[in-house]
């Protein structure tokens, strides 16, 4: 199996080389958010408030999960509270959305428009936790494990599920 390695910040050129079915490993900064916090991040984008939290989404990755002592694992990305934020997050520079579940045709088109991709991660909490070098809350600490987190990861695995208007679903 040929594994493609990505390091943040992710460039358009790196995205252009990926195809549906590719296996990837991610190193660098990954932001973590899900239902409760992603709409708040979108509000920060709309109000130019990301810098208050030192959040840089250009070339970024958002993992649809929560951070807890039980470990890391993807949540369903096709929940309206998550998938509904793809347009704004992708427009703000997010290149890779990590999670699980099939996305709507509209979201596939949004990803194509912004040269962003969706990568699925099998539910492998212990393995992902082992690949996490550092974690800290980036914003909205009051949300607990569902706060917006900043992780430093090494060789985080994933499979490209949506790219360039194509999908594996």
From TrEMBL:
Q: Has the keyword Transcription regulation been applied to this entry?
A: no
Citing just one GO molecular function, the answer is: hydro-lyase activity
Q: Which InterPro entries match?
A: Fe-S_hydro-lyase_TtdB-typ_cat, Fe-S_hydroAse_TtdB_cat_sf
Q: Which Pfam families match?
A: Fumerase_C
Q: Can you tell which superkingdom this protein's organism belongs to?
A: Bacteria
- Could you list this entry's UniProt keywords, alphabetically sorted: Lyase
Q: Does the keyword Lyase apply?
A: yes
- Which residue numbers delimit the Fe-S hydro-lyase tartrate dehydratase beta-type catalytic domain? 6-168
Which family, according to UniProt? Belongs to the class-I fumarase family.
Record's protein name: Fumarate hydratase subunit beta
Q: Please report the organism this UniProt entry assigns to the protein.
A: Proteiniborus ethanoligenes
């Amino acid at each position: 199996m040929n594994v493609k390695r990505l390091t943040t910040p992710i460039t358009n050129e790196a995205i252009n080389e990926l195809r549906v079915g590719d296996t990837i490993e991610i190193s660098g900064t990954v932001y973590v958010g899900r239902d409760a916090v992603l709409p708040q991040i979108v509000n920060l984008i709309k109000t130019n408030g990301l810098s208050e939290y030192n959040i840089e989404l250009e070339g970024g990755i958002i993992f649809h999960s929560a951070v807890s002592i039980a470990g890391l694992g993807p949540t369903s990305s096709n929940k309206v509270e998550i998938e509904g934020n793809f347009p704004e997050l992708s427009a703000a520079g997010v290149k890779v959305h990590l999670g699980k579940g099939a996305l709507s045709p509209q979201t596939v088109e949004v990803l194509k428009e912004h040269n962003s991709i969706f990568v699925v991660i099998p539910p492998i909490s212990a393995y992902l936790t082992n690949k996490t070098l550092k974690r800290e809350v980036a914003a909205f600490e009051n949300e607990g494990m569902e706060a917006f987190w900043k992780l430093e990861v090494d060789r985080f695995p994933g499979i490209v599920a949506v790219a360039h208007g194509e999908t594996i679903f």
